[in-house]
Amino acid sequence: MANESIFCAIVKAPLLEKCMTMAEWSATWQSLGIVLTLCLAGGAIYKFFSDRSLARRQEEKNHKLERIKFFLEQHRRLFDDPDLKSVLRYLDGDDEQLAREDHWDHNRKFLVFLEEIELLIRSEMLDPDACQYMFGHYANCALKGENFRKGIQFDEEHWMLFVQFANKYEDFIARTKQSPPMHLTL
User: Fold this and answer.
1) Theoretical Cys-Cys bridge with 151: which of 90, 104, 125, 137, CB 3.0 to 4.6 Å?
2) Strands 6-8 and 19-21
């Protein structure tokens, strides 16, 4: 059997002997390599989960921004569409213009608009309180307006979503009288 030679390092490293056999040096470097690899792998795993979490938060923000844009487009649609705007002009006072036959289709279009809002609420795409805050007053005026309902078969079975949305406005007002709707979000 051959005599094993001892090799010595120029500088003594902490936790290591200054002089070791070639096999001991080899095992030491392998151990250091494994520790370094594990540290790098741990760092890579941490970076992966950190980036994934950041990407998820960014995606949620983008989704929320899209919902806000959609909601604001619906609000703008109410005021930019000439038919819907003509209904809003007379709705607060239940003006006799709403009862005119040439206005009936505009009134129906307004009902359909509010039913779309209710469907989006039920699909959890829009916040119910925010929709009541922005559209509930108009729905309530339409529900109670005699002139608005002329020319429309206004049975709840035909306009169920609209009637339910309009009736929720009373509850919303009762709740917000006690504390203002500061929690509104989209």
Assistant:
1) 104
2) antiparallel
Task: Quick: pLDDT tens for 43-89.
Answer: 999 999 999 999 999 999 998 899 889 999 999 999 999 999 999 99
Q: Where are the domains of the chain?
A: 81-178
124 phi-psi bin (left φ>0, alpha ψ -120 to 50, beta other): left
HSE (side-chain half, CA atoms, 13 Å) at 143: 21
What is the rounded distance in angstroms from the CA atom of residue 27 to the CA atom of residue 180? 71
Cβ-defined contacts of 90-93 (< 8 Å, 24+):
90/147, 91/138, 91/141, 91/142, 91/145, 91/148, 92/141
Q: Which amino acid is at 136?
A: G
- Position 109: which residue type? K
Alpha carbon separation from 138 to 22, 44, 117 (Å, rounded) = 88, 55, 12
| DSSP assigned state of 106 | H
Q: How many CB atoms lie within 10 A of CB 87?
A: 24
126-160: buried (b, 16+ CB within 10 Å) or exposed (e) per residue? bbbbbbbebbbbbbbbbbebebbbbbeebeeeebe
